């Protein structure tokens, strides 16, 4: 479990500004393990008369962070996550007014055994959200023995079954990580980024319930408790949906199959797709939730279309769909598919010209 946890941490990426803030911690960083793409976990959730089957690349308590190609950083179309969160925390102003629409301060908190966990801010759209929590000891002292890895992430994790659940929502996957935004204070940050499926509409206005138990430090010798306690809180998902709906109905190529785009939307944080594949998954029964090689290939075939986001300045953002969550539902000889592509950096949709899916280019309206 510890090996998988460390491999997942290795793939986490941060903006240049975030890396600068973490520099003070990197002198004592651990040696990175070789990053290996894990087999995705699969689970089924009821949805109507048929069941959705979801897949998300996961390792231990940390899901691999999603990523885009780095070529867009110089274009100015993408803004660092750290910059936006600085704005929400009352720091330097962000680079675009859209942050005020998609982000909201929260302030919900819980205290247990002298440690307070606070839901500081949330950003999102109708089907994806990112929440930043702060964790601090009430006596003002720092958490001892917690040093950042080479990539800036802290090797921490909450106990089992921890995280955020939004009422009326089925989670299809996402990512989470710990980091230290300011090594000079006694506060560390926990970020949880999730995508949802089968909501029947927007998640905005739903109640989110966060539950965490015990904070652990992971290392070569296993895990060690950093803080023991239980932290529960709830708050309303509240921000403006800035999603832009793309035209739908176009056919596209899906790994040797035909497919039709049923709906698509793009926001500053994500691209959300629903499409119908012209074929049924050849799914074989397996003994556990871990994907077999055969079933993993089927997931790749149906849930990993080729995708690029094409900017007006000519920059092309290549997306590795295999690193993002999604779900399938069998409909006889066809398969309904849902894919959430959560961007690593904030995207100014005014600078997007089109999205290409399976060779079919779709212009933004």
Give a structural overview.
- This protein is mainly β and 365 residues long.
- The protein folds into 2 domains: 81-237, bacillus anthracis domain (Immunoglobulin-like, Sandwich); 244-363, Immunoglobulin-like (Sandwich), CATH 2.60.40.
- Strand 13 and strand 14 (222-236) form a beta hairpin.
- The chain has helices spanning 2-10, 16-22, 81-88, 99-102, 293-303; strands at residues 41-47, 50-56, 58-59, 62-63, 78-79, 103-112, 115-124, 128-137, 156-158, 163-166, 170-179, 187-197, 207-219, 222-236, 244-245, 251-254, 257-266, 270-277, 307-311, 316-319, 326-331, 334-342, 346-347, 352-357, 360-363.
- Residues 1-52, 56-76 and 87-96 have low confidence and may be disordered.
- Strands 1, 2, 15, 16, 17, 18, 21 and 22 form an 8-stranded antiparallel β-sheet that branches.
User: Mean pLDDT, rounded to whole units?
Assistant: 76
Low-confidence stretches: 1-52, 56-76, 87-96
Rg over CA atoms, rounded to whole Å, is 20 Å
Q: N-to-C SSE series? A: HHEEEEEHHEEEEEEEEEEEEEHEEEEEEE
Number of domains: 2
For the record, the CATH class of the largest domain is Mainly Beta
CATH superfamily of the largest domain: bacillus anthracis domain
- Roughly how much helix do the residues carry, as a percent range? 10-25%
In terms of DSSP E residues, the strand content is over 45%
The largest β sheet comes out as: 8 strands, antiparallel
Secondary-structure class = mainly beta
Q: Work out the helix count.
A: 5
N- to C-terminal separation?
A: 46 Å
């Amino acid at each position: 479990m510890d090996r998988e946890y460390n491999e997942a941490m290795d793939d986490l990426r941060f903006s240049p500004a975030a890396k600068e803030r973490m520099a003070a911690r990197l002198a004592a960083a651990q040696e990175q393990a070789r990053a290996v793409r894990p087999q995705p976990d699969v689970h089924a959730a009821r949805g109507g008369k048929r069941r959705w089957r979801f897949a998300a690349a996961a390792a231990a308590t940390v899901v691999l962070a999603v990523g885009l190609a780095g070529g867009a950083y110089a274009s100015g179309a993408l803004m660092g996550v750290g910059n936006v969160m600085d704005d929400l925390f009352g720091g330097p102003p962000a680079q675009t007014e859209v942050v005020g629409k998609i982000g909201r301060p929260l302030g919900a908190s819980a205290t247990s055994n002298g440690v307070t966990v606070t839901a500081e801010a949330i950003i999102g759209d109708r089907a994806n959200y990112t929440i930043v929590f702060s964790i601090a000891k009430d006596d003002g002292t720092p958490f001892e023995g917690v040093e950042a890895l080479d990539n800036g992430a802290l090797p921490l994790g909450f106990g089992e079954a921890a995280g955020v659940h939004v009422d009326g929502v089925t989670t299809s996957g996402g990512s989470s990580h710990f980091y230290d935004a300011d090594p000079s204070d006694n506060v560390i940050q926990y970020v949880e980024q999730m995508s949802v499926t089968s909501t029947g509409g927007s998640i905005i206005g739903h109640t989110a319930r966060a539950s965490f138990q015990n904070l652990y430090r992971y290392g070569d010798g296993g895990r060690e408790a950093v803080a023991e306690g239980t932290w529960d809180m709830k708050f309303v998902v509240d921000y403006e949906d800035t999603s832009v709906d793309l035209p739908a109905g176009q056919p596209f190529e899906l790994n040797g199959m035909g497919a039709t785009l049923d709906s698509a939307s793009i926001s500053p944080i994500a691209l959300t797709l629903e499409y119908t594949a012209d074929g049924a998954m050849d799914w074989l029964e397996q003994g556990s939730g871990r994907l077999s090689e055969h079933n993993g290939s089927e997931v790749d075939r149906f849930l990993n279309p080729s995708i690029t986001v094409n900017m007006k300045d000519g920059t092309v953002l290549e997306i590795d769909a295999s690193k993002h969550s999604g779900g399938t539902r069998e409909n006889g000889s066809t398969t309904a598919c849902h894919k959430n592509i959560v961007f690593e950096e904030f995207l100014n949709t005014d600078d997007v010209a089109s999205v290409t899916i399976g060779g079919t280019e779709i212009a933004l309206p």
